[in-house]
Amino acid sequence: MKWITRHRPKIDRIACPWLIRRFIDPAAEIIYVPDEKVLPRAEALDATPFDVPGVEYTHYGDECTFDYFLKKYKLDDPALHVLADIVRGADTDRHYLAEQAPGLWAISAGLAHNTPDDLELLEKGMMIYDALYAWAKFHRHEKHTQHPTEQLLLDVFHRFLEIKTGANKRIPAWAKELKDIIQDQIDTNLSLKEISRELDLNPAYLSREFSKHFENQSFGEYVRSRRIEKAIELLKDPKHSLTDIAYLTGFSDQSHFTRIFKKQTGESPSAYRKKMRKK
């Protein structure tokens, strides 16, 4: 089947062909022509026009053509609907619809700028949407620093460097080397013991020195404090349940999270959240 639309695509006119070829018609032929030639060429070539005014496959209300394809073909894959929010946000400049929308716009605009041939642009864009779909389906809830220790170590390093030292004090060489270790092994499950071994330092020494530079807190105390700070931020968003927040802040379960939260703030998470809403 032939599909035809306006030339120089960026968002919807790349996303829709991707959707067509991946979920509707794998052998679809996509044709790009100047705006004024879409309808005449559609009739001449017996092609279906899309993403132009006055045709079936187009924008309706605040939804874009990608949304219409999902409804028309009853595509109910949840990952596609996650992708639809991103496409709609990028295509209509409503970047608040999805936090990935401005990134998609930036990549699409740059790709179009660097690729004058529309069909070549489509082939490159297909790779982008394949990647976005895989992310939405399999990796949407992951973070690059997936293990809590990884993010903690990054935080530790940056906070360490931000501490003002006296004229006679210097940042230890091991702290500088720590940055390289984190960058080299960012995707592995790092631990204080492993880092001590790589730095050729005694774990007890590293633990003791850590407390000197971080508000006299032990490694464990510092971890819990940072987790509770993050939990307080997450409590502001009503879409997060307490179970979600416990998971997102690295606690083993909600009861553990509640116990530590109350110990540090004097209130349970639910009571703290109620107080925040009243302000």
Can you walk through the features of this model?
With 279 residues, the protein is mainly α. The protein is built from 14 helices and three strands. Strands 2-1-3 form a three-stranded parallel beta sheet, covered by helices on one side. Helix 7 (148-162) runs antiparallel to helix 8. The chain is elongated. Mean pLDDT is 83; it is low at 164-168 and 182-190.
Q: How many E strands?
A: 3
- Low-pLDDT windows of residues: 164-168, 182-190
Mean pLDDT over all positions: 83
* SSE order: EHEHEHHHHHHHHHHHH
Strand order of the largest sheet: 2-1-3
First and last CA, distance = 58 Å
Summarize, please:
With 279 residues, the protein is mainly alpha-helical. The chain contains 14 helices and three strands.
